[in-house]
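Repro case for the chain-ordering regression, as requested:
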Amino acid sequence: MAQKLSAEYQARGLTGFIGRRVARRVAGGRGRVLKTPRKASNAEFALWQIGIVVAIFGLWEYGAAAGWIDTFFWSQPSQVWSKFLVFMQTGDAYVDTWYTMAATILGFVYGTVGGAVIGLSFWWSRTYATVSQPFIIVFHAIPKFALAPLVILVFGLGMPSKVAMGVALTIVVTILTTFTAVRAVDQDSEKLMYSLGASRWQVFAKLVVPSVMPWIIASLRVNIGLALAGAIVGEFISSQHGLGRAILYASQVYDIALIWVGVIVLSVLAVLMYVGVAWLERILLRGFMHGASFQ
Amino acid sequence: MAVSGILAFSVATNDQKGNSYHSLPVRVTRAVAEVESYRPKLELVEVSQVFATGTDSVVTALQPIDLAVPPGKFVSIIGPSGCGKSTLFNIIAGLQRPTAGDVLLDGQVVTRMIGLVGYMLQKDLLLPWRTVLDNVILGMELKGVAKTTARARALPYLKRYGLAGFDRHYPAALSGGMRQRAALLRTLLYDTEVVLLDEPFGALDAQTRSMMQAWLLQIWADFGKTVVFVTHDVEEAVYLSDRIHVMTARPGRIKATLEVPIGRPRDRHVLTDPAFLEVKATCLELLMEELRDEAAETAAA
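-- result from build under test --
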């Protein structure tokens, strides 16, 4: 029917902008033509995004040259770039970047694994879980950065204190996520396992751990960011290496361009680690979910 | 006293077997089951359940229930919702301690013992991270059978019972009917002689449901298990069962027991058989009575 109609309209020349108007009138003004947002292509998005970046840096550079941006506080892209080249040529760049990355990854791994293990342990005893609950909430509420000076005193100036900060930030979140997941384990499935004569250990290993896995995996992305923040704060307080220390040093000698270099290298590192974790997450989820939806 | 009553009861019902047995692989052979059929496979002796709802208020979920299920029989329990059918199953499966009374399996007290009867719920409860085959072998695996052995043992059953080619699929890729098949096979391959089915087809559409009923009768005839089946659907109960127990509304107790005088194997034609219709009508009448009483009580309160 519709096809016949449109063929008829075509025969009457009712196509194109004017034609459609006429056709609408022909339809008696009932109904409206469906209008949905136009779908832009990926290339178009990329063009916009690149354009915005170029505009920001262009304005910054131009503003600094024209004098309405104070380069003492804000520096300028060309200065930052030359500082970047210097930074990369000195040996410190790699040491600092590596140091921060290693501290982050260690904090991430210990925090996530430790949090998952503690969270899972709550499944075994309701008394233990209930007694522990307020302590965890309190520790969760403490701003962990406030503990940084103490952490440095206890763990020293080296890597362990940076790792400890990363753990402090990640472990509580992971415990809480895992505990929520443990409580969400399907009661009927548990019942089924027991009806099949399962021991508690079997229910734990074959039901609880696999059910909780997707939740832990989902917390990885948040944790890598938190571990990085922990490492940087540790380096701010006191450190001999690391990007955090480099940024702190630059600010103490008023080398604004170097601050920007530190921030940019740090951002690139953060993005790379995030992408790496996102990739890991995809691999792990595929191994656990098999097309089932996340609870 | 109660036990002897049950024994007399089961002897009386022993004579009315009109079953034709299939000669397919049977774990518990029919021959053995028949020799021992003077003794009920599963018995409930004055099992009752009371829940404390507050400091001094209690809810009686089950009034003392006596029940005897002869070996190899298909027995259904029907009743209004909330009559305690699921509580009863939890008690039989050993997942819940009854306030009083005992569960007997082959004459031995098994109250509060798990792993002795197969149990299947309305939800298929297949584990999404396991393949269909690995889900089906779960019971064997929990018993300590090596995975490879269990898989080899289960695979022919998947092939024979409508899951051929799906063994490596994950549950998410299966239809509701297929998932229930896998769930039932998991229960059956667990190798218990008694199987409890709690509304296994409750969530399926009518067409799939009637297919699954025929499939269940087939598989029941093959395996020779004793089945206790809970359903809301009177027609389903009559079609599948040898005997039907009708329960009252809460507090639940067995209100009436009906024999289904229809031979086997059964096909869909029995649905119009006068004997079938008579049993169905009686069941419905008994259930309606309960609903009327409940409505009257609600109105009074």
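Ordering looks correct now. Chain A touches chain B at residues 186, 188-189, 191-198, 202, 206-207, 210, 213, 288-293 (CB under 8 Å).
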